[in-house]
Request: fold
Amino acid sequence: LGRFDIAVHVGTLSSFRAKPRREHLDRIKRVIGYLSKMCDSAIRIRTDMPDVSDAVIERYDWSKTVYAGAKEEVPHNIPEPKGKPVKLITYADSNLMHNILDGKAITGILHFVNQTPFDWYSKKQATAETATYGAEELAGRTAIIEQCRANRLTFQYLGVPIEGPSILLGDNESVVKGVTIPHRRLNKRHLMLSWHYLREAIATGTYDYVHIPGKINPADILSKHWGYRNIWSMLKPILFWFGNTGELIE
Reply:
């Protein structure tokens, strides 16, 4: 519990529970060996507001599109927000053809409240996509439509004030631009509904979808089979650093 750094490995191995082989046991030993060596992890509660000044957030006018007047549904029975505001930030990522048997990808999502990770998701997608664009768009739909909305609703019912729009960060620039720029078009018919769902959510102004480089996207940890050295720079400040994380910046 709390070790989201092995979520994708556990999920992959779990699909072979019905009839495991010797090689699967060898992989499990590697996971246990990693946990034994890296046993000093902890999710530190960091309440400081995150600095998002470096994020390039471009907002467009949706008033002359089919999404004009889109609004986020807010329940009328939520309590009055009190206390210090929080910022909700979500990282999303996916890989293409994670499983060669069925060709399905893995969606990896990591949610933060201020600077504290509080929820994560690593699961095989329901359909097999033939391009990275489709896999990444499905990951974005899962992150915004299904989870970001649920998280905002949970905090609203708890009476927690939310600072500005929720920010979704993804490393596929084509998907980000295709969803956030009003005049963009989509030719992939099977992705049309997911595309409209995402664009309508962006048009409400409740969510911002921002592109970041893949090398600094921690959701990559939950979507791919990684090497320890490849993700250590992202994993260390989240799970293995008890001091000021500003000291990690080179």
The beta strands are 88-95, 106-113, 116-124, 166-170, 207-211. Residues 132-157 form the longest helix (26 residues). The radius of gyration is 19 Å.
